[in-house]
Amino acid sequence: MALREPAWRVSARELETSLEEERGSGERAAGYVLSPFGARMNRVLVAGTLSPAEAIGRDEAQTFWRARLSDPTGVVAVTAGSFQPRAMAQLRAVHSPRPALVVGKVHLYRGRDGVGYVSIRAEGARALSENEERALLADVVRQTLDRLDLVERIEKGASLPEEERRRDGIPSAWVRAARDALQRYPNVDRPAFRRDLRAVLRRVAGDLGPPAAPGSPPTVTIVRAPPPKAPAPAPSAEERAEESVFLDLLDEVAEVSVDGYADLKEVLTRVASRGLVSERAETVLNRLEEEGVIEEPIVGKLRRAT
């Protein structure tokens, strides 16, 4: 049995500046959003002020909802649909802004303009008392500062053998995430992010007045592989035929869904019944996404790009 992914304690600002992802291979492989500050996130826990949710999407039943959770560093979108009935009910129960915690999966959507947008697909949300909110924010700050310290230790050349990690109580997942952060964001402005955390500390200390407007996001530099020297060859007639089958089945699934999106698993099942094996289907899916024909604005949900 696969272990459940841990929920990283993070701030809204850290989520806002997380612009890189890592996708595993295989149908059930977990995906991760990589933070500049040492988090490799599949699931997260955030705390702050949760706004009333609004219905979005194209279906008349309005079964997809979005709220916003703000902490002293920024704001992150929180979503839930009919496939998360408990979380959706919890979001809909919020009628005025109130302190809350949200646990869910983090999702990075990159628009056709290349800009990344991070959101949280809620698994659950719960109202908090003032003291509970302050305690959770303190936990967020503690874990974040510990991760920042680890990133800086590794940057300075610390090897961190297993015995040393056990002595210092450093999870192995943190070490991997710290190394990923240094590789994928080599020039991140960590001091600016540390300054953002001071606003959280003021809230923890009991300053419950209007939060100060967060400053500009920390500067990050992303390292990407250089583009190929020659353009990829145009798809063959056979490949275009496979794309046509894939799109037709996607439209069939989306047309009867309650939220207007096509469930990825169902599309792949139908595609397989038409003779397009899993590996070929993944290739077609990736090509259509790269060409901007389809998009996955919600994890596991597809639609034609508008």
Which terms would index this structure?
306 residues; alpha+beta; OB fold (Dihydrolipoamide Acetyltransferase, E2P); five-stranded mixed β-barrel; three-stranded antiparallel β-sheet; 9 helices; 13 strands
Overview of the structural elements:
With 306 residues, this protein is α+β, with helices and mostly antiparallel strands. The chain folds into two domains: 7-204, OB fold (Dihydrolipoamide Acetyltransferase, E2P); 237-304, Orthogonal Bundle (Arc Repressor Mutant, subunit A), CATH 1.10.10.10. It has helices spanning 12-16, 85-92, 130-155, 162-168, 172-184, 190-204, 237-256, 264-273, 278-290; strands at 7-9, 20-23, 31-34, 40-41, 43-50, 54-56, 64-71, 74-81, 98-110, 116-127, 262-263, 294-298, 301-304. A five-stranded mixed β-barrel has the order 5-7-8-10-9. The protein has a three-stranded antiparallel β-sheet with strand order 2-3-4. The radius of gyration is 21 Å and the shape is globular. The two termini are 39 Å apart.
State the total count of DSSP E strands: 13
Could you state the order of secondary-structure elements as H and E? EHEEEEEEEHEEHHHHHEHHEE
Strand order of the main beta sheet, please?
5-7-8-10-9
Q: Biggest β-sheet, characterized? A: 5 strands, mixed, barrel
Mean pLDDT: 83
Reading off the top of the CATH hierarchy, the class of the largest domain is best stated as Mainly Beta
The portion of residues forming beta strands comes to: 15-25%
Shape: globular
Report the radius of gyration as a whole number of Å.
21 Å
Low-pLDDT stretches are: 211-215, 225-230
Oligomer classification: single chain
Structural class: alpha+beta
Helical content band: 25-40%
